[in-house]
Amino acid sequence: MENNYYKKVISYFSRKADQYDLVDKQSYWNLSDRLLEKIINKKIVDRFSKSKKLQIMDAGAGTGRWSLILYNLFKRKKVKTQFELIDITPLMLEKAKDKINQKRITTEMKTHLGNIENLSGYKNNFYDIIISFYNVLSFTEKPFKALLEIYKKLKNNGLYACIVSNKYHAYFFDIATNRGSDLEKISDLSSVRFNKKMPYIHCFTPSEI
Prior knowledge:
This protein has helices at about 5-15, 25-45, 65-75, 90-105, 145-155, 165-175, 185-190, and strands at about 55-60, 80-85, 110-115, 125-130, 155-160, 190, 200. It is α/β, with parallel strands linked by helices. It has a single domain, classed as Vaccinia Virus protein VP39 (Rossmann fold, 3-Layer(aba) Sandwich). It has a five-stranded parallel beta sheet. It is globular and about 50 Å long.
């Protein structure tokens, strides 16, 4: 059974599941995604473009958006990929399963319900690439425990790519939106939330991550 914090996380993303992928229609997120896709192409795909087959874990896969993007980018390079998509929210994973079924890539992509703080069911030193987009680590209760789990699963020359909430951005956001009451929480606990419906999440400094 999940603890109270993860119950809040699951509840939050369960409410968002049906609308989650509609961010593609919002100018800010559309631009952000296109920029990130360019970075992925340069920093991840180019690095592994000569590989014959890659084992990839999406640690915090949500609706599978970024696994599918990465799959397509590698497909263009004629690199075969095998994905494991892990997420804590059943309704988000259902969306991922629907996409995988529609694209008929069920042999290339498998979904698993689970918490990335415990990856004991997955092989150590096995994955070439592990990704966590967006803010997956920030939504974990013990992000550094999750990082240790992820590290064990990577091959020695493997790559982990993630995006986390930035502590300095959290300060800016709270000031810009007149939410100064949270500044102390950001300062003392490195915790932030961007609306009242979401649970507080961990925000990192560059040196901390």
